[in-house]
User: Fold this.
Amino acid sequence: MNIDKDTNKNNDKVLIQFYDDEKHQVIIHHLGSMIQNVAMAIEILKSVESVLKEYDIV
Assistant:
């Protein structure tokens, strides 16, 4: 999983990356974006968990 900070906006992007054995390539899927006003680890974790819950991953 990759959490990417967009330097031009206030959004953090939650991306998931994995290697697809059938396609023989890395797949990148954008799960969502969030505005992160507080940079404490627990707050970032809560935001990421909320995005993952949307996809029933957590």
Remarks:
- DSSP finds one helix and three strands in the chain.
- The beta strands are 2-5, 11-20, 25-35.
- The helical segments are 41-54.
- The chain has one domain: 2-54.
